[in-house]
Amino acid sequence: MTHAAPAATHAAPSGDPAGPGAYVLGVDSGGSGLRVALGRLAEPGPLATTVCAEPVRTGPGGIDAGHLLDQLLPAARELLERASAAASAETRSDAARAGGASAYEVAAVAIGAAGMATLGERLRAELPGALADALGVRRVALAADAVTAYAGAVGQRPGAVVAGGTGMIALGTDLKEWHRADGWGHLLGDSGGGAWIGRAGLDAAMRAHDGRRGGSAALLDRLRAVFGPAETLPGLLYPRSDRPAVLASFAPEVAACAGADPVAAGILRQAASHIAEAAAAVCPASAEPDGEGGGAGEVALTGGLFRMGEPLIAPLREELARLLPGARMTTTTGDPLTGALRIARALAAGGLRLPRHPTMLFVPLEQET
Amino acid sequence: MTHAAPAATHAAPSGDPAGPGAYVLGVDSGGSGLRVALGRLAEPGPLATTVCAEPVRTGPGGIDAGHLLDQLLPAARELLERASAAASAETRSDAARAGGASAYEVAAVAIGAAGMATLGERLRAELPGALADALGVRRVALAADAVTAYAGAVGQRPGAVVAGGTGMIALGTDLKEWHRADGWGHLLGDSGGGAWIGRAGLDAAMRAHDGRRGGSAALLDRLRAVFGPAETLPGLLYPRSDRPAVLASFAPEVAACAGADPVAAGILRQAASHIAEAAAAVCPASAEPDGEGGGAGEVALTGGLFRMGEPLIAPLREELARLLPGARMTTTTGDPLTGALRIARALAAGGLRLPRHPTMLFVPLEQET
Q1: A213: domain range?
Q2: Among A27, A87, A124, A176, which has the minimal tally of Cβ within 10 Å of its Cβ?
Q3: How close does chain B come to A205, measured CA to CA in Å?
Q4: Cα–Cα distance between A301 and A295 in angstroms, integer?
Q5: How far is B200 from chain A (nearest CA, A)?
Q6: Residues B313 and B344 placed together within one structural domain of the fold
Q7: What does the pLDDT look like over A140-161, one tens digit per residue?
Q8: Does the distance separating the beta carbons of B180 and A188 come in below 8 Å?
Q9: pLDDT-derived band of residue B4, with 50, 70 and 90 as boundaries?
Q10: Both A356 and A319 in a single domain?
Q11: In the sheet where B361-362 sits, what is the strand order?
Q12: CATH number, domain at A86?
């Protein structure tokens, strides 16, 4: 299919990489759908956001670039038309000069996608050209979702982000290169993430059921309340295709038991230890303590995992203090969509300081200004 | 379909439950196919065995009893015909009296099946009648594969068996009831089994790849030799439907590294601890130490897991000595097929002492003699 390019009206002074009134788009493509944020180059924050509920398809060749565009372009055009109309209404003389036609400039788009690292070949090959054709976009960045999470949580400073949900991944940078730890999925790692915590809790419940050492009667009670008789759980879990999500659904039960149950508390302490290990592996050296009394590095926690609150955060604070005594732990509301918008804005302004990488942060059409 | 019953010739003295020349059949139905063993009631060991390579189908209603019979009956008839012909050739006058027709009596059949506990409803409902019709069988036992493993490894004495392969389950009995521990599959337990060991080894390899604490460079080398670059492993593993088997395929690599690599050795010690915990949970009280210097209980190890040898057996011996100081650990060559034949022979002779249970050991047609 073809995507017709609307006329792009340049309002920027000549010589400038993009006009201060130009738009930027941030995109977050994940398992629960595609989110798009529109912003102005010269203003912080998004003007508007929209959500396409259908997750982008992936096939043998990777993320389906056509399917992504089919959702992204109408959503982006609608956001741009609405913003242009609102801007025109404010400055009627400009609208009259433009003859009523929609007039906008999209200086940059940044797309963060789950699976970019392993599944993004077609995205990298097809998307930048298609966006240039369809929206007149001058600059495009394709990022792993961990990178947009980093940008949303830490910004363009050196540091580390831990993105925790069903899984768990840590990403750090000294602004020279990226360091990644874990994020290997529920069978190879994701240690300390939601599925890991839930699985450990169910293991402890089954131990209590069997009379094995390490069991927790409290967690067995919760297993029965949530899933029914313990011996029926394998028959419920294994036929499911979303087994990691089923395991992660038990993580809040572990947190709820941790106040009174030492086994549950031990699981969360172990999870905190694994999360701190991942953060310590990626946090840049400047954030580690030195002879002068410690660095000023930042470890930002982001994602649904940390909504578990103090039962996990309290031991994590202790483990981080032990492994990274110089670092400052923050919890953040800046999400991957915010991060994508930040990357787009920095790219448009010629100030993207995060390191480029073929699968972490790919900028194929970057041009000298 | 119908299964015509051949004429059964009774050679036993009247009043006896079955003639000493009667046959018994043991069946082991598992993931790699159906195995059938034929024996004589009054002689130890099998006369002959055969293998049907196609695993018995399971559907929403459980194990497919028709599919099992379609494979079992021709295999059993062939074994019986061959054995009868051989017996007739030895005693020609008997063969002449029988007029050349095949003449055999099947006193009992015992079928051990993986998934009996949760998937065996149709087996229990349909199989005994069908076997009576088709082979004139007088007694039928349906057993969980852990029970035939017990019978093969321990026999009819009190004790415990640990059956280890990709998974791990422990089963014990005091001859009054069964006690089961673990065997909950690779996400809920099977702690210390092949998939557990392999997964722990791959986790340690990925930790080394990331620079996280707890990593093993030796295991990372083995991961690369077996699977290729570490970062490609998730893409190889997660699309597979036999993920537990893929994980378990790495367990021998962990064992091979354990001599020189403390992380690998630690994984096997942890596995041994989990296995001992399961054995301790099911071993009957008489096998635990008492004031008189310890019981005489037996913990039998069976299954492919223990072919790993001393790297696992040595720490397991120590862990068992710690948790069950009175117990005697044995490794055994008696497999579930041997166990099924033993159960059939005991059932035919009226001497089955293992406890009956709806899903562990079901004897629907037991008759008084």
Answers
A1: 181-331
A2: A176
A3: 9
A4: 18
A5: 8
A6: no
A7: 999 998 999 999 999 999 999 9
A8: no
A9: very low
A10: no
A11: B48-52, B33-40, B23-30, B106-113, B139-144, B361-362
A12: 3.30.420
